[in-house]
Amino acid sequence: MSNPTAHYADLHTTDLNNAAGQSALGRLLGRMSRGYAQWQLKRQTKRELSELDNSELKDLGICRGDIHHIATQTTINPNYDHRRSN
Hints:
- By secondary structure, the protein is mainly alpha-helical.
- It has helices at residues 4-18, 24-50, 54-60, 67-76.
- The chain has one domain (4-16, 25-80).
- It is 69% helix and 0% strand.
- Helix 1 packs antiparallel against helix 2 and helix 2 packs antiparallel against helix 4 (67-76).
- It is elongated, with a radius of gyration of 15 Å.
């Protein structure tokens, strides 16, 4: 599985570096691009977790029903820890 946190951090840093001086269209396109990248990352995370069997998921401390929630939260917040969400 690739490192989604590093990918998100790169996108976020790029966003902060380019925020000053952009036109409204540039900001809109940037938000759309980041949204698309987050959607792709969420989709990839869900696909890769879904490919694991139940014993592998159990080794990670999750069940199959947690996959959608974990994929969503980790693309929004790369520091999200599913074990501390309860």
